[in-house]
Design brief:
Layout: H1 12-27, H2 31-44, H3 50-66, H4 70-82
Helix pairs in contact: 1-2, 1-3, 2-3, 3-4
């Protein structure tokens, strides 16, 4: 039998660095692009560390504010605080 490979586990610091790098790249296309990146990231990362989720929701709220979506911004803040 072949030995089972262990899944690669990133540290919280590495996950945060990945999030910030992806956000920087997406934000260069404007706040709408940043929102799209953050939305996909938050939906696809059920196991994201809570500390990183808090940063992601903060960035999400900031991008929504830049787009003038104040109600959505407040909802993102509430979601971030609930984590």
């Amino acid at each position: 039998m072949a030995k089972r490979q262990e899944p690669i586990r990133k540290s919280v610091k590495n996950v945060l660095e990945d999030l910030l790098a992806g956000h920087r790249k997406a934000a260069s296309g404007g706040p709408e692009s940043a929102l799209k990146y953050l939305r996909r990231t938050l939906e696809g990362q059920e196991s994201m560390p809570n500390a990183v989720k808090a940063v992601a929701y903060d960035l999400h709220a900031e991008a929504q504010a830049q787009c003038g979506r104040w109600e959505d911004c407040a909802a993102s803040v509430d979601l971030g605080l609930a984590q």
